[in-house]
Amino acid sequence: MNPHVVGDGDGAEAQPSYDAVTETATAAGDEAISAESPTIVVPVANLPARFGSDTSTEVARVSHEPTAADLAKGLVKPADGRTRTGTVVAGDLLVTVNSADGTVVAPCPPAQRAHPVLIAGDASARPRATGGHLLERDALCDRLRDRLGQGRCVRLTGAPGSGRSSVLDTVAAACAGLAPAGVVQLSGYRATAADLLQDLFRATHHAPGYRPGRDLLPGLLHSVGAIVVVDDLEFGGSALEELLSAAPECAFLVSSTPDTDALMAHSRMEEVPLPGLSRQASLSLLARMAGRSLDETERAWAVDLWFESEGLPMRFVQAGALLRHREAAIEAMAAGLPTPDWDGTDFSDDQGVQPLSPTPGGFDAYVNHHANDQEPLPDPVPLPSVGESAAPAVRIARGLSDPARRTLRLATALGGECPAAPHLPALIDVGHGEAALDELVEAGLATLVGAHHRLVDGVCAMLADEWPVAVATREAAQHFAWWTGHASVTEEQIAAEAEVLLAAMRADREAGRHAKVVLLARAAAPAFALALRWGAWERALRFGLESARVIGAVAEEAWFHHELGVLALCVGAYDRSRAELEASVALRAALGDTRGAAEGRAALGLLDEAGTLHSGRPIVLSVGGSTRSGLRRRAGMAAGRAGQASVTRRQIAAAALGVVLMGGLGSAVAFGLGAFQHGDGSAAVTVGPLSSPSATASASGSASDSAPASATTAPSSASATTTDQPGAPGTTPTGPGTTPTPPGPSQTRTPSTPPATPPSSTHVTTPTSPTKPTSPSTPPTTPTTPTTPTTPTSSAPATGAAGSATAGASG
Question: What's the per-residue H, E or C state across 494-554?
Fold first, then answer.
């Protein structure tokens, strides 16, 4: 073993000397990993605070790579994270993670139940500097602080690179002391609503190893009064409303991009857009990042950049890096020194640096070459065009130092995720990892997300074509698998690097190295489970299951199915849990693994009990999903109260059909009763309005006189809704070719025979017994010319009876 120390001491022993490092080769083939692997030791003083002072800083480079045949035969048993075990409490369940045959769940004994204690929030949970005074953001920050002080919720919406994170950090620092529970800063990067609720619970309660269920979280967070700042939130709509309703006493300040789901109509959160900087502010920011004032050429170039970028601050941070690199290149040319390769011909590190000057020989040769020109001396390093400034990642990368360029290449291979500084010596031979990461941040290529760095949006896509071969990730899975199994590395430290580990799995899967994906997924999954990062736990299990199926590692595939089933059981997704557990039992039974199959059947038995006990509770469909509601939930609650199993869909459909039929029958009965009974006991016919008051009076008198006669008349058929009488106003002829006689001032009006089924447009009522009509003040007159009644479409007997009654009433 040949350790190499990288530190800040004054002696020569503390200086890096990679040329003196000689790696000891391990045995080839399928032998176990030797404990004497080459190691690089990094002092604790150089580590960030999140790694802790008692953390071992040894990182190893392992030369043995597992093959698909090794995993399929079970020959590879490295000392990695798969040996990590522990217990956590999830709701009412006691979860023993990574036991001999997989994770085991059982009802939690009363003595081991958690008792959460409310604590004050820690505003420094995400240490981050804002980088000084923010240009043109003071008024916005003051307005956001006032709204949060009033208990209101705000979503800050801005394009990538608009400075949302800097605004949130400034507002969070200004809100210290406003809320009883303090300020809680969370990262919403690739986090679901369930993950954020768990993070909020952990920040405000002391309950190590406890993850409350989705039905218990609203009760625990109901009395928490904190200002919650969430950066890079990736969801909206109903999921955001679930987050807000779970903590009603908290004031939320979140940031999102414009393509995030819109807010609900009646949400208590308001949206505030984040505009770009003005032209003057953009030029001031560029001068600050360049470290000097701008000349006329640079100001004109900056104005064009401002028009193209719409004032995004990140674009001017990157432009400042271009100006610094350009100035360094000009100074190197003037001194006759070699400069970094700016012509973009090759990015390989082994080729070395090339002179940047158009004329070989340095700045003097360049001046002598243009000495006889009458025009002004051309710029030796011209400014990039507007098109190049719109995608500056490639040109900025040419001016970086060698450690920063290696770190940038590794992050590009990992999909934009940057490993922490202690991992860089083992992965890419970069000793001062913190300095390399800081250089990427100053150049506008990387940003801090939570506890780790990642490339800004668009940089990874720009550099993917320049570095197509992901050589740097070939040993990443092996290194991280060893690191997760180190005794001094805690679950929280592994969870802080969750996105990096998942990115390494994704890179190996895309490169076809499925054996390494299975190895790293098996090593990292137990740590994610114990750290209660169950969103990352599920993603790691999915990666491992897919790769195990590809290489034919049946035992590993059964293990991943079992773990996914247990995870679904803990979050309440019972249908998905049953499918995963049954698949695990079938695979293990086919392999002859009786103990593993027994563990799966035990989990299925607990699943049956949980489905019966919780049939009346909302069922969580996924880690970040919503609960069931509506008719099925109410039916399940009724069955739970009666002590029965959940109703089936067929029973629900039959019950719904019965409700509809009974409603229709009740409506028919109500219409029938209304057709034969009027409110005041008098016969009436609802007709159209009359043309004159005299006609109205005549119609009223005729109807009263003819009521006894009409009461003794047999009802007509359903098709004859109104019997047309001669000279009656507002009637419609039913026979073709029949022309009704227009009503006169002396015509009378008689009600028709009530139909068996009342029409929708005419309301006809008939008294139950004949009532003596009241004599009108003016006796009605009879029509001068009787007309023959029109024959309706109904049967002849009904028409005849109606006609006889009408004639008797008229006489």
Answer: HHHCHHHHHHHHHHHHHCCCHHHHHHHHHHHHHHHHHCCCHHHHHHHHHHHHHHHHHHCCH
SS3 for 665-712 is HHHHHHHHHHHHCCCCCCCEECCCCCCCHHHHHHHHHHHHHCHHHHHC
Cross-sheet strand order for the sheet of 153-157: 183-187, 227-231, 251-256, 153-157, 269-273
- Which amino acid does the sequence have at 65? E
What are the pLDDT digits (tens) for 604-621?
999 988 766 554 444 433
The whole-angstrom separation of Cα 763 and Cα 793 is: 20
Residue 24, both tokens: 């000891």
Q: Which amino acid is at 63?
A: S
Spatial CA neighbour of 357 closest among 380, 376, 335: 380
Q: Which amino acid is at 742?
A: P
Q: Which distant-in-sequence residues (6+ apart) come within 8 Å of 445 by Cβ?
A: 318, 393, 396, 397, 408, 455, 456, 459
Token reading at 15: 């200086």
Residue 339, both tokens: 């400069």
- Residues 676, 679, 681, 683, CA torsion sign: negative
User: CA-CA distances (angstroms) from residue 673 to 679, 703, 765, 768?
Assistant: 11, 21, 9, 12
3-state secondary structure of 287: helix
Write out the two tokens for 650: 């067929």
Which residue, 157, 165, 163, is CA-closest to 135? 163
pLDDT over threshold 60, residue 328: yes
**In the predicted structure, residue 493 carries a pLDDT above the cut 70:** yes
Structural Rg of the chain based on CA atoms: 41
User: Residues 747, 783: contact at Cβ < 8 Å?
Assistant: yes
Tokens coding 315: 């674009």
Six token digits for residue 269? 């959160």
Residues in the chain: 811
- CA 33/CA 64 separation, integer angstroms: 7
Chain segment 192-223, per-residue pLDDT in tens: 999 999 999 999 999 999 999 888 899 999 99
The greatest distance separating any two alpha carbons of the chain, rounded to the nearest whole angstrom, comes to: 134
Contact 566, 98 (CB under 8 A): no
Angle between helical axes of 313-334 and 279-290 (0-180°, round to 10): 40
